[in-house]
Amino acid sequence: MRSFLPDLAIATLQYRQQDCLVPKFGGLPWGFPQDLWRNCRECGQPLALLAQLPHQLPALDLGAPKWVLHLFQCTTAGCATWSHDDGCNVAFTLSRDALAEGLTRPPNAATPRPVSAWAGPDRIPIQDPSMHGEIWITGWREHEDAIPPHLSAAYRNPVEFGALPQELQFPHQFDCRLATKAGGVPYWTANGPGALPGIPQPPYRYLMQIDSALVLRGTLPPPSALGCDVHLAHWNAQRNAVDRMETFAVPEANRRENAPWHISQEIFPRDVVSQETGTEGEYFAAFANFGSDGTAYVFIDRDKSPPDVLLFWNR
């Protein structure tokens, strides 16, 4: 089946979003009506933007060009963000006509954020969980997997899914490079669909998924340009394990509010890396906490106007 993988760019390395809607994960929403901003039902804190994505065929089908997908999630550790109906996340579409100009900041919280332990997707502590790091989507690449279209219904049925061969259950082989995508069928985590309280059934259709770590390709920029700390995991080829972790902290004057929580990169013996020049390859932006290593899933009912959207995560 055909799906689409996003090409990503860190917002702090781009021009400032000043005059148009940009497809993106995290950051602040563009032109969003502040009176529609919701608070977490458990902790009372304003939800943080996970994604603001306009209809974009063939990758992202929201039913009509006027719709813009909005995903929000609480960033307080412990709130029930895994559920689509507990009030700790929210997903909906708005018409472009409902959006104004400029970035919208969240309303002030009525109460202080609860004090709790907080760790990002790779278990490294996060200093400020008030906003998800801003990552722009610059395009979509087509991806073909080995799943025959006639088996698509099995990915919403735990029994039928469990009867599939392993290579069809997990065609992504748990590669995070394939874990953020749109279209096709859900690439479930190791727990599969059986661990969920209930997979949305038709008329809801699978729309997309977002992994807790977003993969970026190219040279690793220095922390001062990124606006966040960089963590390097040095691998030992003989032991096939990480030998040591190295951290390059961003100077406080260069820290950016909308930067990723942190950036990580795996360094293998053949790589030559310096803090300033980096290396060609790929690196990972710690994006959202879906149970430290989970994936968020989005389902949509396009028969309604506006389309109804559900967001939940699994690990």
What does this structure look like?
The chain has 315 residues and is mainly β. 4% of the residues lie in helices and 30% in strands. The chain starts with a strand and ends with a strand.
Give the helix level as a range of percent. under 10%
Q: Strand-residue fraction?
A: 25-35%
The structural class is mainly beta
Overall mean pLDDT score?
A: 89
Task: Return residue spans where pLDDT drops below 50 for at least 5 consecutive residues.
Answer: 271-279
Annotation field: number of helices: 3
Largest sheet: 6 strands, antiparallel
DSSP, total strands:
15
Distance between the termini: 23 Å
Strands across the major sheet, in which order? 1-6-2-3-4-5
Which term fits the overall shape? globular
**Radius of gyration, taken over Cα atoms and rounded to an integer in Å:** 19 Å
Oligomer: single chain
SSE succession: EEEEEEHHEEEHEEEEEE
